[in-house]
Amino acid sequence: MQINGIAHVQLTVTNFKVCVDFYEKLLEYFEMKRLIKTDSVLYYIGGRTGIAISKCDEQFQNEHFEQRRIGLHHLCFRTRRREDVDELYRFLQSIDTTIVHPPEDGPWAPGYYSVLFEDPDGIRLEANYVPGKGHLEPTATIGPAGPLGGKAGL
Hints:
The protein is an alpha/beta fold. The protein is 18% helix and 31% strand. It has two helices and eight strands, in the order βαββββαβββ. Strands 1-4-3-2 form a four-stranded mixed beta sheet, with helices on one face. The protein has a four-stranded mixed beta sheet with strand order 5-8-7-6, covered by helices on one side.
């Protein structure tokens, strides 16, 4: 069986109110549509993608996101044009987002171009552009270091 993509990703955050403000701005910038907004869940869809933000249990309120801990490493959105990455970078600056790296070329696929940033909880988010189908092209190959080229900074 071949899957048809990822239906949705749900991120759990500690500072729900602040994160909701951030994600509403970001996901509306991505032209996604809000389906749910409660005291504990925010859910948007668009671009064949669903993103849910949920409030953590109170017992975890004082914990912080650790990129190298078991679980999510980072979430990457794919853009349609290289210029979209640059435009997103300017938008992120306008809403005082923590930028890990500004738009730059990367070795992970021919033409790979991305910006890396964090939500208010420090969860790493990326937006990239890869021309054509990138590694989804049937003839694409992945080097010996894997699809991320061994780079640990993402």
